[in-house]
Specification:
194 residues, mainly alpha, Arc Repressor Mutant, subunit A, 2 domains, 10 helices
Length: 194
């Protein structure tokens, strides 16, 4: 079968396998079967499975960066709690939450990511933490977060607690209201009400 955009179709197939079968289910055969193509198609575009997975992770990390930029651009509009609630739901969606154990699971993938991004590879949680901290700092600069708020601690609290809310794949994603209640609790003393 001829794939029109082989890389993207393989990425999408890998994402479906990852979400369905977890990191241990991601094999060359599983990905190519899911994409409906021969095993050689993956190897025509990538040197091996870890090279493919590194490109997949980098592609999805770029999507997270776009979401992080959208969060930062929302500063000054809407409610701070609502902005962060929506951002957490997007940033901790099923794919990023599945990528975290994938990176942990595969030594070769971590090595490829370190090569691609010197200084630590792709830290999904670090990326989300930086996005949330940048947003909170911008809201503080606009006077919507109290001046003495510890942005780093708030960011870590939002991201760490948010990760725990979304981490249980068996239970499914938390409701929007559960995420909003959590964010409101973390930011209760930091958000200016008037």
């Amino acid at each position: 079968m001829h794939l029109r955009d082989a890389r993207q179709q393989l990425f999408d197939a890998a994402e479906r396998v990852l979400l369905r079968d977890g990191p241990s289910g991601l094999t060359t055969r599983a990905v190519t079967d899911e994409a409906g193509c021969a095993k050689g198609v993956l190897h025509r575009h990538f040197s091996d499975l870890d090279a493919f997975l590194a490109e997949l992770v980098l592609d999805r990390a770029a999507q997270l960066e776009r979401q992080a930029n959208a969060l930062l651009e929302s500063a000054g509009s809407g409610a701070v709690t609502d902005n962060l609630t929506g951002a957490l739901i997007g940033l901790f969606g099923p794919v990023p939450m599945a990528i975290i154990p994938l990176i942990t699971f595969r030594d070769g993938l971590r090595a490829r990511l370190r090569e691609a991004r010197p200084g630590g590879g792709v830290g999904i949680l670090a990326q989300v933490t930086n996005a949330v901290a940048a947003y909170l700092a911008e809201e503080r600069a606009r006077g919507r977060i109290v001046a003495d708020a510890d942005i780093d601690s708030l960011g870590l609290s939002v991201v760490g607690g948010g990760h725990l809310l979304f981490a249980d794949r068996e239970a499914g994603a938390p409701t929007t209201e559960a995420v909003r209640k959590f964010v409101a609790g973390v930011l209760a003393d930091a958000v200016r009400t008037s």
